[in-house]
Specification:
- β6 and β7 form a beta hairpin.
- It contains 45 helices and seven strands.
- Among the domains are: 180 residues, P-loop containing nucleotide triphosphate hydrolases (Rossmann fold, 3-Layer(aba) Sandwich), CATH 3.40.50.300; 85 residues, Alpha Horseshoe (Serine Threonine Protein Phosphatase 5, Tetratricopeptide repeat), CATH 1.25.40; 74 residues, Winged helix-like DNA-binding domain superfamily/Winged helix DNA-binding domain (Arc Repressor Mutant, subunit A), CATH 1.10.10.10.
- 48% of the residues are buried.
- The C terminus is likely disordered.
- The protein is mainly alpha-helical.
Length: 921
């Protein structure tokens, strides 16, 4: 047994034992909180200090034997000689076996037995937990204590603070005698905790855990040892190095309950009340729940604080509180939570605190419960505690007693679940749609229901509900509904009117109506019917619009040809809006940025952002919007040659309504491009023609629609059906807006492939100019490659090599690895055709000096002499001198003949072109 910080007490007991051996008896009462180490002190003193110098009689009282007459005395006499035990039994038999007042002759007889034993040899009587002793034994011990001054008897009693009335009488009586000493044991300090842990764990580990263990246990040795055992158990489970920090586990929880069952019943009742109430409850609530008076409750709280279980009126660790609640049992726990809820409501407590108890109890019957639960759910949602809000709303929904209240509860519950995971609201959509139809919901909840329906592809239900709401709504609410109608028609073009009437569009705010609508501003900008707004508009837009999340996400991703213009101000707005609650926001933001990266040809960034968007939440929670990041991932995988990844993306499940949206068309287009890349032109053509058919069915096959004809023409060219391909491409070019450089460049590129070789360079040159202005670097690389191939086919190697070199360089920048690899043989062929002798992998580069290699590398990448001089901090004349030596050693005539290996990324100064993209033009 290990004792820490108990040396002064052991020294005092040893001195008193010496006095006892000299004929001066004494009584020592060792007091302290529960489990503070009194038993260990008595045991250590008896075994290690007293040893064989005295006869030792010991006993430990127990609540189970409190009503057993003379039970404690029986334990003590069990260690005495048989003759003394028989004498004591005979005396006690005269007491009549009652627990009442003992006759003096019986008390005298018992005392004489112990005193006679001490005449033969000194006697040490140790009694632990004396506060649990039976009344008769206590009276005998008290009678004996009065006669010990001139004896060789030392009586050591272990007592607990605030024990019952029986031991209180004993303490009161003994405190009057000068030979009675009181020893109080306090919990360990932080150093003591470290020392105790060091006996159980490695010294370094003990030191690192000491502060945390002291905070959790308050220095209670029993609890400190429990923490050591929990740490050792965790280390064994890990099978390697131990945990890096404190482990508060099962042993700790068990010992806390054990401590509380060793205190007086009223203290246990207080501990249970504190556990039920949680936090730092008011003393009045603890008193009311435990059934005690206020003064008594405060005293018992102090007792529990002294024992290390509580600190400032609350449990030191949540594990202790949870253990006490489990010890209560389910039925008792529910009853106490209900009682706590009623008490708090009667005293005007906070709704959140009341709701915690209602949720813990379940199925409340109080008439005010539903209102409290709704109020608490709203506050919890605003604070970001969505899980608790859900618990409140689920309980409120179960106790709703009319259809209106049930509808409202379901709407609030759906809103909270939407913030956690949008897929959860699917199970509510049927009832919510019915509630909207029956006008059981407020306008805000009705708009939220429309949002869920649009998100998850329930477009017919959304359109029907929107029609009914519009028929009975006026004023500002009607303006919001017009915005929703515009969103519906943009995201589901099949819902647009077929009678020739114009599509829905949000109204501009008139004078005096306040800030413009964010949804309306974005809709008008994306629709192209007004100039794109600037960033300065964002601070003035209305915050917290009902459909801001769905509309911004849908609209930003729905029209890729407008995204390049809208992105500079729309994406910062998404950044700001991403602070709102809801798991879909970060995913939408990443998907929007992935789309922008794809449009500028940044394939690595597009793939990374789209993958992160899908990882943000589950696929079902994306609803129909899943088509946007999936299409982006498919496109980047195909363009970078990762066909196995593309095939894996195609196995991901998508909602049935996806093809009704622009996202579905882009997904279908990306799937067709994959089919074309893996040499399945018929399957690809089918996907592209399906896109066209869907657009025609919706009446949306206009000049700004998805350019499916270009993709279909590409598949037809692969099938050698050049006339059909040419017809589709000319149809695509007819009426194409002049600001759509991306579509123009792609169409010209594939149209050139349908012409004779000598007709191609002119069209491809125009395509290069269009794609440069559009900023699509991947498509630009393909077009430059086609241009170089066209020059080579016509025998113009002088023009072919710079075009191929630039295509290769652009493809490398975009990480379009398949294209860049395919260009290397063509570059080699043009070198050989010129007779320059600049073979890929030739040995002549070894003749170049480091400076010549740097200059030659930059020249091979397309830099001018002035640009090279600026980059290398040398003069233009020096550049010219180096280039002359490079040409001579490599046996080439000009920079267009320089070999490809000089511009390899692994060569010197390989990063220069990337550092300044303008130098590559």
């Amino acid at each position: 047994m290990v004792l820490v910080e108990r040396d002064p007490e052991l020294t005092l007991l040893s001195d008193l034992l010496d006095d006892c051996l000299d004929g001066s008896g004494s009584v020592v009462v060792v007091r302290g909180p529960v489990a503070v180490g009194k038993t260990e002190l008595l045991h250590t003193f008896s075994e290690q200090v007293a040893g064989d110098r005295v006869r030792r009689l010991g006993a430990a009282a127990s609540p189970a034997e409190r009503h057993l007459p003379f039970g404690l005395l029986s334990q003590l006499l069990h260690g005495a000689d048989a003759a003394y035990a028989r004498r004591a039994d005979a005396v006690l038999a005269e007491a009549g076996g009652t627990d009442g007042t003992i006759e003096p002759r019986v008390l005298e007889g018992v005392s004489r037995v112990f005193l006679d034993m001490s005449d033969a040899e000194p006697l040490l009587i140790g009694v632990d937990d004396v506060h649990h002793a039976d009344t008769g034994s206590l009276q005998c011990l008290l009678f004996l204590a009065r006669r010990l001054r001139r004896s060789r008897v030392m009586l050591v009693l272990g007592d607990q603070d605030r024990a019952g009335s029986g031991s209180a009488d004993l303490r009161t009586e003994l405190s009057r005698h000068p030979y009675c000493r009181q020893l109080r044991l306090d919990p360990l300090g932080c150093d003591g905790v470290a020392a105790l842990l060091a006996h159980e764990l490695d010294a370094h580990v003990a030191h690192s855990l000491a502060a945390g263990a002291f905070a959790v246990t308050g220095g209670n040795p029993l609890l400190v040892r429990a923490l050591a055992e929990d740490w050792q158990a965790a280390a064994r489970t890990a099978g390697g190095a131990g945990p890096s920090g404190l482990v508060v586990g099962d042993r700790f929880a068990e010992r806390v309950v054990s401590c509380l069952h060793r205190v007086e019943p009223d203290a246990l009742a207080v501990a249970r009340a504190v556990a039920v109430l949680g936090g730092t409850p008011a003393a009045g609530l603890v008193a009311g729940l435990s059934g005690l008076g206020g003064i008594e409750t405060r005293a018992l709280v102090e007792l529990l604080e002294d024992s290390g279980v509580l600190r400032q009126g609350r449990f030191r660790h949540q594990a202790a509180q949870a253990a006490v609640l489990r010890d209560l049992g389910a039925r008792e726990r529910v009853a106490r939570h209900r009682c706590a809820a009623r008490m708090l409501h009667a005293e005007g407590g906070r709704p959140t605190a009341i709701a915690h108890h209602l949720v813990a109890a379940g199925e409340p019957t109080e008439p005010w419960a539903a209102a409290v639960l709704h109020e608490s759910a709203a506050g919890a949602t605003a604070d970001g505690r969505v899980d608790f809000a859900l618990d409140c709303l689920k309980l409120a929904h179960t106790i709703a007693d009319d259809e209106h209240q049930r509808a409202v509860s379901r709407a609030v519950l759906a809103d909270a679940e939407w913030r956690i995971e949008p897929a959860r609201v699917v199970r509510h959509l049927g009832q919510l749609t019915e509630a909207v139809d029956r006008r059981l919901l407020a306008h805000r909840d009705s708009l939220a229901t429309l949002e869920y329906l649009l998100w998850h592809g329930r477009v017919d239900d959304a359109a029907s509900a929107l029609h009914q709401l519009a028929a009975t709504t006026a004023g500002p609410d009607a303006a919001e509904l017009r915005e929703v109608r515009a969103v519906l028609e943009l995201c589901y073009p099949g819902q647009r009117p077929r009678d020739g009437s114009p599509p829905a569009s949000p109204a501009r705010p008139s004078a005096g109506q306040g800030a413009p609508s964010l949804v309306g501003t974005v809709l008008r900008a994306m629709g192209g019917d007004e100039a794109v707004p600037g960033e300065h508009l964002w601070p003035g837009l209305r915050p917290e619009e009902p459909l801001s999340r769905i509309t911004l996400g849908l609209l930003t991703l729905a029209r890729p040809e407008r995204l390049a213009a809208v992105a500079p101000w729309c994406l910062p707005m998404l950044d700001d809006a991403a602070g709102q609650d809801g798991p879909e926001w970060p995913g939408l933001l990443r998907a929007a940025r992935a789309e922008a990266a794809l449009l500028r040809g940044d394939l690595p960034a597009a793939a990374e952002l789209a993958a992160a968007a899908l990882d943000e939440t589950s696929l079902p929670s994306w609803g129909v919007l899943v088509g946007a990041p999936l299409a982006c991932l498919l496109t980047t995988a195909v363009r970078t040659g990762r066909y196995e990844d593309a095939a894996a993306y195609l196995t991901m499940p998508v909602p049935p309504a996806l093809l009704e949206t622009p996202f579905g068309l882009r997904y279908l287009q990306a799937r067709g491009q994959y089919q074309l890349a893996v040499n399945r032109p018929y399957a690809a053509l089918s996907d592209f023609q399906t896109c066209g058919q869907l657009l025609r069915d919706r009446g949306d096959d206009g000049p700004r629609a998805l350019p499916w004809r270009i993709d279909a023409a590409q598949a037809l060219l692969r099938l050698r059906r050049r006339a059909e391909a040419r017809a589709l491409l000319e149809e695509q070019l007819d009426g194409l807006p002049g600001d759509d450089g991306r579509t123009l460049g792609r169409a010209l590129r594939h149209l050139a492939a349908a012409l004779e070789p000598h007709e191609r360079p002119a069209l491809l040159t125009d395509a290069v100019e269009a794609l440069q202005s559009a900023g699509d670097r991947v498509e630009l690389a393909h077009t430059l490659a086609d241009l170089g191939g066209a020059y080579h086919a016509t025998g113009d190697a002088r023009r072919a090599r710079p075009a191929l070199r630039r295509a290769w360089r652009t493809a490398r920048e975009c990480q379009a690895e398949g294209l860049s690899r395919s260009l290397l043989p063509g570059l080699s062929a043009t070198s050989q055709a010129q007779g320059a002798g600049a073979l890929l992998g030739g040995d002549r580069a070894a003749e170049l000096s480091a400076a010549e290699h740097r200059v030659g590398s930059l020249a091979a990448q397309g830099h001018s002499n002035r640009q090279i001089a600026h980059r290398l901090c040398i003069t233009v004349s020096t550049v010219e001198q180096h280039l002359t030596q490079v040409y001579r050693k490599l046996r080439v005539k000009s920079r267009t003949d320089l070999p490809v290996f000089l511009e390899d990324d692994d060569g010197p100064d390989s990063g220069l072109a990337r550092d300044d993209p303008s130098l590559c033009r």
